[in-house]
Amino acid sequence: MNAVAKIDESAPKVEMEAPAQPAAAPVAVAPPVQPVPAPKKRRMGRFFLMFALPAALVIGGGYVWVTGGRYQETENANLQQAKVSIASDTAGRIVQVAISDNQMVKQGDLLFAIDPEPYRIALAQADAAVAAARLNVEQLRAAYSQAMAQEKSASSEVDYAQSQYGRAADLAQKGINAKSSLDQARNDLDKAKQQLAVAQQGIISAKAALGGNPDIETDKHPTVMSALAARDKAAYDLAQTTVKAPADGVISQASSFKVGQFVGSGTPLFSLVETGDTWIDANFKETQLTNMKPGQKAEIVVDTYPGRTFEATVKAIGAGTGAEFSLLPAQNATGNWVKVTQRIPVRLELTDPDAKMALRTGMSASVTVDTGVARGFPAIFGHATAGEPTQ
């Protein structure tokens, strides 16, 4: 039999490693050769940028400067509203309070009321005084009529005494009557004349008591007019026990104002900030007022509403800088004087009526005024620009 050798494929294969090769000797490597740079080519674009960019900046800046100066801006501005101190014209105890702190009120709304009873009594007394004054005038008229009657009677007595004296004088001249009868007649005539003089003085006095006019109207007499004035004062005081809002606004500083509080006449109680009277006080540098005049248009941006612009107009320019009206004005008469740009207040009036309701006094604002005058080329050469300076 031919024996055939079979190889067991399931047996693990043994890999035969190749015999190690002897290490080759290191070969010296030459350093790489650097390429020689080619000469740089000059580019015209580089020189163009070097000169064109500064020229563009100069031209652009010059244009902005020449055409600028028309709009004057400042952030030193605050919104202002009229603040009214509410006080009572009459003294008394508070019996009703119809407001609270930070409450919106309309003109004519009730704010508070004072106890009216004492003033009702005073009004009743004033009415009685008027009636008494009118009665007194009627009595003066009666006294005048009486004085007139007395004067008429005294005049008749004078006429009678005069006739008696004439007859006695004739009889005495004829020797019929005694001299004593003539003396008695003369004495009676003198008494009648004196009584007439007294009656005439009574008429003058009664006429003077009637204001020099016997036919004067009762309510035109000074005494009655004085009583009527006192009555009007009492009625006014009674009306002032009810205090109403003088204008539309917001109540402020009224948190401690309560019922039962006694208030004096003229004592400030709380404040009313009028929302209908709103303006802007902007403090511009004196160098910004060259072409600013009343009536110019302006734009207001309030910090509370940064995305909203309010229209306004220049109302007036202040009479002087803020330092001039300070308690201790600056005195620059020393050798250490340094020139400092001053600021002058400018008042601007809001022209948007709806904006006034959204604003509150004291808010910070930014103001931009359109003077309508740019610097222009004449300003470069020292000449005056168009437009008139402020007066």
Description:
This protein is 34% helix and 22% strand. It is of the alpha+beta class and 391 residues long. The protein has a 6-stranded antiparallel β-barrel with strand order 1-8-11-10-9-12. It has a 4-stranded antiparallel sheet with strand order 5-4-2-7, with no helix packed on it. Helix 2 (117-174) runs antiparallel to helix 3. It is elongated and about 165 Å long. Residues 1-25 and 379-391 have low confidence and may be disordered.
Concise structural overview:
The chain is 34% helix and 22% strand.
What are the main properties of this structure?
391 residues, alpha+beta, 6-stranded antiparallel β-barrel, 4-stranded antiparallel β-sheet, 4 helices, 12 strands, 22% strand, disordered N terminus, disordered C terminus
Low-confidence stretches: 1-25, 379-391
> How many individual β-strands?
12
Q: Which strands sit side by side, in order, in the main sheet?
A: 1-8-11-10-9-12
* Radius of gyration, whole Å: 55 Å
Beta-strand percent range: 15-25%
The dominant shape is elongated
What order do the SSEs take from the amino end to the carboxyl end, as H and E?
HEEEEHHHEEEEEEEE
What is the overall pLDDT average? 80
**How many separate helices?**
4
- Structural class designation: alpha+beta
